Amino acid sequence: MLTAHISLYSLMILLSARNTFTLLLSRTYTSAALLQFLNLSVTHQSLPLTRQSHAQILSFGLTSNSFLATKLITAYALCGHPTHSQLVFNSFKPKNVYLYNSLINGYVKNHDYDEAFDLFSDMCYSNVSPDDFTLATIAKVSGEIKDLSLGKLIHGKSIKVGSVLDIVVANSLMAMYNKCGKYSEVKNMFDKMPQRNASSWNVLISGYANSGDCSFAKDLWEIVKCMQIDGVKFDAFTVSSLLPLCGGQDDIARKWDYGRELHCYIMRNELDIVSDWNFHLDCCLIDMYSRSNNLVLGRRVFDRMKHRNVYIWTAMINGYVQNRELDEALVLFREMQEKDRIEPNRVSLVSVLPACSSLVGLISGKQIHGFSIRKELNHDVSLCNALIDMYAKCGSLDCARKVFEDSSFHKDSISWSSMISGYGLHGNGAEAVFLYEKMLSLGNKPDMITIVGVLSACGR
Question: Cβ(378)–Cβ(369) under 8 Å?
Fold first, then answer.
């Protein structure tokens, strides 16, 4: 109902905008009116309004106005039509850096990274010097596709033109090195920055957090203290990067109870009220408390939420499964659909299937399998692996074999290990060894779990 109201409200705005559009264009200041409606097209990502604005630009002979052109390029790109943006771009000669930036950014927003890179190369060959925005955008894309060579090239270009001193460009380069796994380069760049903001610290913290190195964890909390000493406040991104490191096996975080401190910080600064972040932060809190074996506080976070989405429900279900509260996990899975009318996604199904396995809930497991087939989720490898494991533990080896032998999903080492372990669990040692040999003959490398599964099967 809420979504319907929002859609209706947006429609009313657009209809009102179109009526005002006609009135404004009848006046003298047509370029100002067009700019206003192009901004409205961008805000609402309205393709019809963008096309009307484009038609009026042509009819009023304003095609040489590069400022309107940049807005038009952006509007078409946000509507998912970067090819239309390219046509507008091609109509201009000579082209300036702002036109290039608008089209490059448009391709990036539509994940057309090759086109963005080609345009950047064309820009350099056309003797149009890239500015800070161009370099920051291309550096970010280099990180997204994990192209370290290209990222280093952009870094060199930034040094050559002096843009590396710009805080946005430096943050983008740090983020690129972070996504390429070069944490020493992230730290090196951070140390050389003449100025830093919250985003600079966030990139450094997320780099350490994603490293997976235990020794890094000790350094990380020192960095957090330095950030506070430097007078930079945590934002929602900072907290969401730190919460996964709290609880669980991290002795340092458990000793000082950083998770509870961060939770208090979120409440004091009302970070969970920010609409774009509240669901994500609450998911992180539920996960943190679940890993700390403190489901009571995790459930308290869950219960106080006025609105919940599928990710919140999944986080709480997964918390119950992790803590072996399997009855509660299944109850919550049903409530998600019956109470809030929220349809489970792939992650929800993978999270709840272990509860069916442990309770020998074959009927529930089959219902989940049927739901995944209806929603065409049964080709996902992680879901298929969970189904194989569930069927084997519920005593239905034939069903596990049917899922495994389905050629619609690409089997990984976990798929083979799950089926081998299933044979071993049921005392079918010969089948387990045969499947292991077949796995090797097809060029699949076994991992430690596979070896343990085969040895267990031989023992049985």
Answer: yes
178 within 8 A of 207, measured Cβ to Cβ:
yes
pLDDT tens for each residue of 289-343: 999 889 999 999 999 988 899 999 999 999 999 999 998 999 999 999 998 899 9
Q: Alpha helices of 198-338 — where are they, by DSSP H?
A: 198-209, 214-229, 236-242, 251-256, 258-269, 278-291, 295-303, 310-322, 326-338
Give pLDDT tens digits for 257-272. 788 989 999 989 888 7
CB 136 within 8 A of CB 169: yes
Q: Which CATH architecture has domain 308-410?
A: Alpha Horseshoe (1.25)
Place of tokens 């913290």: 205
- Rounded to 5 degrees, φ, ψ at 182 are -100, 75
Half-sphere exposure of 428 (CA within 13 A, CB side): 16
Contact 272, 278 (CB under 8 A): yes
Query: What distance in Å separates the CA atoms of residue 128 and residue 301, rounded to the nearest whole number?
Result: 53
Q: In this structure, are residues 47 and 14 in contact, taking their beta carbons and an 8 Å threshold?
A: no
Structure tokens at 211: 């490293």
* Cα first-last separation, the chain: 57
pLDDT band at 164 (very low <50, low <70, confident <90, very high): confident
Q: pLDDT, tens digit, for every residue of 233-248?
A: 998 899 998 888 887 6
Tokens describing residue 449 = 């779990």
d(CA 403, CA 419): 10
What H or E segment, with its residue span, contains residue 41? helix 30-44
Q: How many other C-beta atoms can be found within 10 angstroms of the C-beta atom of residue 358?
A: 15
Question: Once rounded to an integer, what is the mean pLDDT over residues 105-111?
Answer: 93
- What tokens does 289 get? 């408390």
User: Domain locations in the chain?
Assistant: 308-410, 412-460
- Model pTM score: 0.76
Closest to 415 in 3D by CA, of 384, 442, 446, 436: 384
| 2-56 pLDDT per residue, tens | 344 444 444 444 445 555 444 444 444 467 777 887 888 888 888 888 888 888 8
- Give phi and psi for 35, each to the nearest 5: -65, -40
- Distance, in Å, from the CA atom of 451 to the CA atom of 408, rounded to the nearest integer, reads 26
Q: From residue 302, give the alpha-carbon distance in Å to each of 286, 289, 398, 428.
A: 7, 11, 38, 44
- pLDDT tens, position by position, 52-64: 888 888 887 777 8
Q: How far apart are CA 221 and CA 459, in angstroms?
A: 46
